[in-house]
Batch of 3 targets.
Target 1
Amino acid sequence: MAMPEMSRSQVVIYAAVALALLLVGARAIRGEGETDSSFAAGNSGGGGGASVSVAGASGEVVVDVTGAVRRPGVYRMPMGSRVDDALARAGGPTPRAELEAINRAARLADGQQVVVPEAVPGGTAAGTEEGPISLGTATAEQLEEIEGIGPVTAGDIIAFRDEHGGLSSIDELDQVAGIGPATMESLRARLQP
């Protein structure tokens, strides 16, 4: 059986389709493993529509800065940024911010929420006893308030967090020595990512 001859226009169309498939395939191979996409509102000017950011591909992390800051919101930050950088991006702390309650030197992790508590009369930060503590910014003293966590384990958690550039899930803490199933339940009840 002889194959029918293709016209010049058919050859051009097939070549264009083949080129498009090669480009799509190259993008898929290059993007393989970068499936953690996050939506982040553009907060750099006040208008800001939503944009899509693929964590890892752009060298950025997306964080939610809330609490006692001038411009709470979701921000894209360069990989390796610190909590203090996120505070600056959110317009800085308000005059009532309880900065001693957070670790401003901690590295940011993708998807992290940075909660800046507000000082209340009596000298304690709002929400430190009732509400959840931010895993990304918790101090050793805050961690020690959790049942089953002593000074050594609190220090180990902070060292583990800093060593791994932050934590995006409480479940990652099961890798810290001395944390068993009962302690993990206490941590889940008192911490937030």
Note: The chain has one domain: 51-192.
Target 2
Amino acid sequence: MPDVRVICEVSDGLEAIQKAAELQPELILLDIGLPKLNGIDAARQIRELAPKSKILFITQESSPDVVQEALSVGANGLFVKTDASSDLLTAVRAVLRGEHFVSQI
């Protein structure tokens, strides 16, 4: 995607919060299973510090409860890691257009 640029990568939820506040990115791709602070808890704080950033979750969990919790914290989308090859670009495009995306679970 030539119109999308990666500006930062982090390794845990605490760093994700710090960088989101600092950089105010348009889109944050956030793993639910992050160390130190999971992605859902990080997203709650990111929502406060970077309210204009769109959040797209990636997860290996496909339970309806995880999907519901992710969306309840204000995520714009979610896709499952096993579907990343087919869903990543579609999800990114949808979320950047202001749509919600949830992969088939």
Note: The first helix runs from residue 13 to 23.
Target 3
Amino acid sequence: MQYNTHMAFRAKKCKIKVVIDLDYMAIIWLCALVFFVIVEAMTVQMLCIWFAASSLVSLVLALIGVPEWAQIVVFFLCTAVLLIFTRPIVKRFMNKPRERTNADRIIGMTAVVIQEINNDKAEGQVSVANQVWTARSTSGEIIPVDTKVEVRSIEGVKAIVEKQEQE
């Protein structure tokens, strides 16, 4: 049994009445399409976009009068084909290796203390990769000038360093 929903729109000035005859499956596919697009926009994981594309195909089939069972079969087949054949290609382009920024690059590098590091006084600077960074020690110990340290992490604009063991 097929139900038809009539939606009437009336232009205020022209007094033109336009009637759009929509099948209930077309409304379901349109709602599914909108839902999947919204979820994809919120997550940006490139998963729901394939369901949205399949919903669009099924919506077109509903509008031209294809039986409901065929619309559902096409939805699942189209989704499977898109997921299997196009998702790996898209993921390859999306998961390019991230270029490390200046802050990320100095982690693990050796630095030289150019101003005594004293966490209690909130003082200390290091020179690393031709840059001067505000520094704090991981252990809280005072590290004198000209000591070699290793950058362990970055917290905001501060390099968190640890004194290197003497060889």
Note: Helices lie at 24-43, 48-63, 68-85, 87-94, 102-105.
